Amino acid sequence: xxxxxxxxxxxxxxxxxxxxxxxxxxxxxxxxxxxxxxxxxxxxxxxxxxxxxxxxxxxxxxxxxxxxxxxxxxxxxxxxxxxxxxxxxxxxxxxxxxxxxxxxxxxxxxxxxxxxxxxxxxxxxxxxxxxxxxxxxxxxxxxxxxxxxxxxxxxxxxxxxxxxxxxxxxxxxxxxxxxxxxxxxxxxxxxxxxxxxxxxxxxxxxxxxxxxxxxxxxxxxxxxxxxxxxxxxxxxxxxxxxxxxxxxxxxxxxxxxxxxxxxxxxxxxxxxxxxxxxxxxxxxxxxxxxxxxxxxxxxxxxxxxxxxxxxxxxxxxxxxx
Length: 321
Fold this sequence. Notes:
By secondary structure, the chain is mainly β. 10% of the residues lie in helices and 40% in strands. It contains 5 helices and 20 strands. The strands form 4 sheets. Strands 1, 4, 14, 15, 16, 17, 18, 19 and 20 form a 9-stranded antiparallel β-sheet that branches. A 6-stranded antiparallel β-sheet has the order 2-3-5-12-7-10, with no helix packed on it. It is globular, with a radius of gyration of 20 Å. The relative contact order is 0.19.
């Protein structure tokens, strides 16, 4: 199967902005525009093929075709469901403080995967910050009392962020994206979120948004979360650099920087790849065809695509399992 471009699904959560439309070329009438689900087989927001023989079919539909049998690769055989979900997130306003459960808890209680995720900060306003786990060892009853008394923020680590930062968030880590931050998120294929605190905001219906305090208390980590360093920036050839941003049991993501060079790759049946252009322009060549990418575009490279090339002057996030 040859590579094809993807069209994302969109979300208009109340904290979203306009940057995905104006800077990342997303075509939707949603206002505000909070998220684009770039690589997704999740029923709450499936992405779809935007080029080639399968245009307008969802990614899940393409993968169920007879010719899609080898598209995911051998590494995906250990997963019962499509393993990952990739988003662009524009937080014009702060997101709620939330936590995601582990696989063990989610499968037992929600018939869902849990959610470990990673944020790649693409842009951040001056003085912007995230909440990232508890600031110190915390007793569960202390956490409960802080939620009830609206003092939860005093127990959390407030971490400044800037463009280029990479934040790995294991399941169980209490967290929130602050206002003025735009990220690319790589995560498990899950839409399961336990909202802990929402700053007293009202939803579109004029009522406070639902909190999930008891479930959050059941899964929240009570010890500070240690940050993971990114890998070294490695030259792959003339005008080509690669950096491992993060990896775990569910995904591996690298930053590929093309400075006029050509990266030669091979999809040899091991794993699919998703290439998301986060800056500049690039071109993916495979099987005599060419797919142009501009900022915000993503392409699915099936595991059985064979030899391919990435060329141009852009920055690509390359994710696989």
